[in-house]
Design goal:
The protein has helices at residues 5-11, 32-48, 65-76, 90-100, 112-115, 134-139, 176-189, 207-220, 232-238, 249-257, 281-291, 363-369, 409-417, 454-464, 490-497, and strands spanning 20-23, 29-31, 56-60, 80-83, 104-107, 123-126, 156-163, 169-175, 197-200, 223-226, 244-247, 271-274, 296-301, 305-309, 323-324, 329-333, 345-351, 358-359, 376-384, 390-395, 400-402, 405-407, 422-432, 436-445, 473-476. By secondary structure, it is an alpha/beta fold. The strands form six sheets. A nine-stranded mixed β-sheet has the order 2-1-10-9-11-12-13-14-15. Strands 4-3-5-6 form a four-stranded parallel β-sheet. A four-stranded antiparallel β-sheet has the order 16-17-19-20, with no helix packed on it. β12, α11 (281-291) and β13 form a beta-alpha-beta unit. Bound molecules: adenosine monophosphate. Adenosine monophosphate is lined by residues 162, 207, 275-278, 297, 299-302, 321, 378, 380, 392, 395, 399, 406.
Amino acid sequence: MSDSLFDLIRERFPRDPEASFIETPGGRVMTYGEVEEATGRLARLLAEAGVAKGDRVAAIVEKSPEAILLYLAVLRAGGVYLPLNTAYRAQEIAYFLGDAEPRAVVWRPEAEAEIAALAGTAKVFTLGQAGDGSLMDASADLDPDFQSVPSAADDLAALLYTSGTTGRSKGAMLSHWNLASNALALHSIWGFRPGDVLLHALPIFHTHGLFVATNCVLLNGSSMLFLNRFEPDLVCRLLPRATVMMGVPTFYTRLLEHPGFDQALCGNMRLFISGSAPLLEETHRAFEAKTGMAILERYGMTETGMNSSNPLEGARVPGTVGYALPEVELRVADEDGRVLAAGETGVLEVRGPNVFSGYWRQPEKTAAEFRADGFFITGDVACMAPDGRVSIVGRAKDLIISGGFNVYPKEVELVIDEQAGVRESAVIGLPHPDFGEAVTAIVVPEDDACPPEAASLIAAAKEALANYKVPKQVFVMDALPRNAMGKVQKNALRERYKDSFS
Ligand code: AMP
């Protein structure tokens, strides 16, 4: 008996091969019959390219229905899916590929010349947003009847890179059962039912759009309206046909600001879900006032998938992330791992079938983030009510979340510190009406008389980093505030510059 996530999903495909799985705003429909055949062809192509059990397949491609097929085909071939954000620059991609050593790499066709050299010995394919490129071409004539490679529950299904405060990214190893157990739990607690239509406007290189949204739809055997990105106009046009939407908080603030958005558009909707960053209570309330619907906030992370959710039936309390998912245990502990009483604030720890097995080739880092009894230390600061309801109060690791994307200050600081005229820097997130938080750099010049120019620092950051990590503003200070232990006091910086974007 195989515990492959692909087999679990396939068992639930609708009997009618003409049933729609993905519909694009342009009217293109991808049916479940096509998913069955195309993933068979692609899995065969990967196998012929040498992808065997446990081999990584990296995808650095734009969002498209074919990219979802690639994800499923990798599972079917017994491989390990490794999606990367297309915003990454060559330097960043070189690190990921060097670390993960994929057997095959799928690029965007337009990036082929620039980065093919980074692929090393991996087999290279291309996939464009329109489904063009060598991946689909080379598989077109292959036999779709491909026996899926059996996988055990603990076998790796995906490697998702997250970052650390040291600036080095770590690959979170996720097994078939990590993903399957989480998808089954979410499918159940969010009441997925026949005929549900999910509006999908999230990126698919991240756990939210790839696993939470897509796997729920697949387990439900139903369809999704698939947008390349979040565009309020398009969302408003398609909402009347959807029943469920999953989004980051920025989606909801943008909808609220959009003149065309109103209650009438939500007539068919049964559920709006938010996560990946804190949803402001203010946004929750404004959304409910406008639409009559309370956004359901949930909480999770790359390493664990989803951990908690507000209830489908019952109070969805603004500013809280609800209760532990079925089979998932949550507790709040102090730095030494002592479990705290209800109402006390500490670091949230989690144990359950959703929790990853460790960081790729980093046993020490893995060991440092797990307690002896198997609980994973999330690094999120939280407080749990006596009935188990969780509120996330902050982030222990100073992670910045800008427009739903995680930015680790250290990585940006390293780039800024390299620039001429910079002695040191501190990168913080400041409240921003659109992005939630805006990446901001505070720079100490080598020579007070001629501080580096903000524009040239921003330009240098753009060269080295994905756009969402680039500071939106740069401030100059004589010295960074530090505590007695020599640690930069980022809270003081946040306080000082807090109104910069309001
Ligand atoms: P990622 O690994 O990209 O999914 O980011 C995970 C981090 O996002 C968590 O560790 C939290 O800090 C944050 N996060 C996710 N969902 C929420 C939420 N509903 N409220 C507050 N923070 C959240």
